[in-house]
Write a structure and sequence with these properties.
By secondary structure, the chain is α/β, with parallel strands linked by helices. It contains 8 helices and 10 strands. It has a 4-stranded mixed sheet. Strands 7-5-4-10 form a 4-stranded mixed sheet, with no helix packed on it. It has a two-stranded parallel sheet with strand order 1-6. Strand 8 and strand 9 form a beta hairpin.
């Protein structure tokens, strides 16, 4: 009963008129069974049962009984069917400019199979961990890579996040699937304020088909009372070493010292450090700019991209992109 309740809470939201909606969707249209059959269920399943949940028959193979579920079919199941040849080259993914096309808002014709989740963020686990700080650590040796420590109020959940990330990405994120960005100059009144964005880089290998809706999740933490020397020192060490290490830490509050967890570390060779005025209206890292922020724009910048973003937010624009 608890499992079903948690599963439903991951995929069902409450409408304004629940009685008529539930009768129509769950009664006439069999919405729940259709959703379970066709949507991307691996995310809520892994959120509840853990990242090691067995989703395929091959996952049940064990060293003790390696032939437990070996396929006996000699030919592929689609043997004899006409298949489309995959393109040999793929276009580089680029952010669009201006308002999204109208068809992006019309999901009535969007098939369940056209919606895909591309995220390394376990939202339920991050909510439990309560990310509340960022710390920079470096050695006396100027050639040694620096560290970024993400401080969590719940240290055990923070360690679980990193264990899961290492399972997905490995201890060395060579493909740069984990996106880490630092957006500076968020507010003129607080010139040292910046935002740290943790998210996912979309695969740039043709894995997405035209017309797909991609769901991705980002987490944002604002550093308000900061010493600019810390970020500057990290950036200098990173540029010198060409990489940095990412780790978790237990940080109860500002009055306590953080406890660093050095047993689960991810090596990163890429990070984005950019001023807020350079972010356009469709930038993945625009989530770092809050409604209360007033980004610093140099006097030499003409038609700063962030102006379009701020203007659209003033007009009450709601982005169709799920970037949390």
């Amino acid at each position: 009963l608890e499992t079903i309740a948690l599963l439903i809470s991951q995929i069902v939201t409450t409408p304004d008129e629940p009685d008529g909606y539930l009768h129509r969707i769950f009664g006439e249209q069999l919405g729940l069974s259709r959703a379970l059959n066709f949507t991307e269920t691996s995310v809520p399943v892994s959120n509840i049962f853990g990242s090691s949940a067995k989703l395929r028959l091959v996952d049940w193979n064990t060293h003790g009984n390696p032939v437990a579920h070996i396929c006996k079919r000699v030919f592929p199941w689609h043997q004899g069917l006409k298949t489309e040849k995959a393109p040999e080259a793929y276009e580089h993914l680029n952010m669009g400019s201006g308002a999204p096309p109208k068809e992006l808002y019309d999901r009535s014709s969007l098939k369940h199979s056209a919606r895909q989740v591309s995220s390394v963020i376990n939202q339920a686990l991050w909510n439990k961990a309560k990310w509340n700080a960022v710390a920079y650590v470096w050695s006396i040796d100027p050639d040694e890579p620096p560290y970024i420590a993400l401080g969590f109020q719940n240290g055990n959940a923070g360690k679980a996040i990193f264990r899961e990330l290492i399972e997905k990405l490995g201890s060395d994120d060579k493909q740069n699937r984990l996106r880490i960005s630092i957006i500076t100059g968020l507010n003129k009144a607080f010139p040292n304020k910046y935002g740290v964005v943790i998210g996912s880089n979309l695969p740039d290998d043709g894995g997405f088909e035209i017309g797909r809706e991609i769901v991705s999740i980002s987490r944002v933490h604002h550093m308000d009372n900061t010493n600019p020397t810390n970020l500057r020192m990290f950036q200098e060490r990173f540029e010198r070493a060409g990489k940095f290490w990412l780790m978790a830490a237990h940080w109860q509050n500002e009055q306590t010292q953080p406890t660093l967890y050095d047993t689960a570390i991810i090596t990163k060779n890429a990070i984005r450090i950019a001023p807020a005025w350079q972010l356009g209206d469709n930038d993945l890292d625009s989530a770092a700019i809050g409604l209360e922020d007033d980004p610093i724009i140099p006097s030499t910048a003409v038609n700063a991209p962030v102006l379009r973003l701020l203007e659209r937010r003033k007009l009450g624009f709601k982005s169709p992109y799920r970037n949390r």
